[in-house]
Amino acid sequence: MIRTLYIQNYALIESLNITFEDGFSVITGETGAGKSIMLGALALLLGQRADSKAIRQGASKCVIEAHFDVKDYHLQLFFQTIGVDYDDDCILRREVYSSGKSRAFINDTPVQLSQMKELGDKLIDIHSQHQNLMLNDEGFQLDVLDILSHHHKQLAEYKAIYRSWTDDKKTLNKLMEEAERNKADEDYVRFQLTQLQEARLQSDEQESLEQEQDMLSHAEDIKSALYHSAQLLDGDELSLLQSLKDCRSSLANISKVFPSADELAERLNSSYIELKDIAEELLAQEESVEFNPSRLEEVTERLNTIYTLQKKHRVNTIAELIAIEADYQKRLDSIISSDDQIDALRLRCQQKQQELIKEASVLTNNRKQAAKEVEAKMQSRLVALGMPNAHFHIEVNPRKEPDVNGMDSVRFLFSANKNGVLQDISLVASGGEVARVMLSLKALLAGETRLSTIIFDEIDTGVSGEIASRMADMMQDMANGNRNEKPQAGRQVISITHLPQIAAKGSAHYKVYKKDNEHETVSHIRRLTSEERIEEIAKMLSGESVTDAALQNARELLKIRS
């Protein structure tokens, strides 16, 4: 629950520091005194987007900070999830700068605004007049019924199946669209793949073929060069080898008288042997080279096939062509197998849909049972609030298809008159009737949630007198634990009101007022003493001119507040 609220430089508030109590508290003040300003500042702590225009004129930033007692609300896991240290005394702070930037903190740790909002939703429910319009919102109606159906676990399981089902349906639709596109391309893919497969490409063949083509194209030149070289080395006429042989013989003849000739002859002999081997190799190579026009044609045709495919697919290597072939094979396999995948996924979707329908029927039964109980409780509350002929009915109708919340469409129907026709509540209820219906629903919800603080902003619109007093009693019950329901420790209910009957029922009474200084008008709030409460309630009864009768009436109202 909220313990303290500190506001600095927000709208008409220069500096405000207020402490709140447990139980039922009321806030009063003249129209325009600043009650809505205080709620606006509090809304910033709950994650509302900031507006630099809200900063008090002349200030560079505004600060809103609140301390909450959260020890009974099992929020340790939430704090762990967002990476913030937990403390029973939780501090929320928001800083808004004139530049338009803002910062959010939880326990002095910077956090995202969405995280602050998520925590704020667990701590405070601010019910303003515009929220009465939610009574005609099907989403709100369904949420109310689900909370009072006590099937949070079943609803969470249903939603998990629903998310899985919708994901599978998206995948199925995508597969079917892809299959349709692919089948339109199947002939093209198959043709391209067949052409590549028939080429029987080998990763290393292009280089060897190009070398072979060069050799075959120049076979006669090669043979002529090899033969001529062999003849120069070892021909019939004077050749290099014959000259070496003669030279070696000449050296051998002088070896006895010139010893160094032996070494030179040996060196010549080594050269002779090597050149003799080269000459033989040249002749062998010359014989192996064959002018083969048919092989040249075959090689040229193969290379033309490779070059044509490379040009067609805009690549430079056989490796790239092989990769393209593999991709076409994959696409064709996907086309061929898509029907099987689609059939399997369609079957899975059907099975999950049946599971959804089964789970949804459990939710439907729970909702219908809860609707009867809610109708009875609402009936008794509305009678207590001065509507003896009111009839409140929850209509649960089936949907054609499952949605995220099940297969139910929910409508809140209402009639304020005896034997009146039930219609949508927004069509038949007056402002005061809507306020009483909403307060009754909030009272039911308060008994089912862990929300620690509920703030009603003029929920008493359209009512007065004894009905206002009964509404105050209901808010007291919410703060203290509903008489017929399991009490919840430490709940706060704060009502911003213009009605003395409600103001008198609060255990704590705060007044918002404006005060002028020499430069500006500033809003303030303070807790009233017992005597100040009497005067404030008397003013609410009779206006600024407080009469003795009004003072006496105020004392009487305060005497019976409990």
Topology record:
Elements: E1 2-10, E2 13-19, E3 23-28, H1 35-45, E4 61-69, H2 76-82, E5 89-97, E6 102-106, E7 109-111, H3 113-123, E8 124-127, H4 138-149, H5 152-199, H6 205-217, H7 219-234, H8 240-253, H9 260-288, H10 293-313, H11 318-384, E9 391-403, E10 406-415, E11 423-424, H12 425-428, H13 431-446, E12 453-457, H14 465-480, E13 492-496, H15 500-503, E14 508-516, E15 521-527, H16 530-542, H17 548-559
Parallel strand pairs: 3-13, 3-14, 8-12, 12-13
Antiparallel strand pairs: 1-2, 1-4, 4-5, 5-6, 6-7, 9-10, 10-11, 14-15
Helix pairs in contact: 4-11, 5-11, 6-10, 7-9, 8-9, 10-11, 11-13, 13-14, 16-17
Task: Name its key features.
single chain; 562 residues; alpha/beta; Rossmann fold; 6-stranded antiparallel sheet; 6-stranded mixed sheet; 17 helices; elongated
Count of DSSP-assigned helices: 17
Q: In which range does the helix fraction lie?
A: 55-70%
Overall form:
elongated
Largest sheet: 6 strands, antiparallel
Can you give the mean pLDDT? Answer: 88
| CATH topology category name of the domain at 1-128 and 450-528 | Rossmann fold
CATH superfamily of the domain at 1-128 and 450-528: P-loop containing nucleotide triphosphate hydrolases
Which class of the domain at 1-128 and 450-528 in CATH terms? Alpha Beta
Per CATH, the architecture of the domain at 1-128 and 450-528 is: 3-Layer(aba) Sandwich
Annotation, overall tally of beta strands: 15
Question: How many angstroms does the end-to-end distance come to?
Answer: 22 Å
Largest sheet, order of strands side by side? 2-1-4-5-6-7
Question: What proportion of the residues form beta strands (DSSP E)?
Answer: 15-25%
Which spans of ≥5 residues are poorly predicted at pLDDT below 50?
A: 483-489
Global structural class: alpha/beta
Rounded radius of gyration (Å): 48 Å
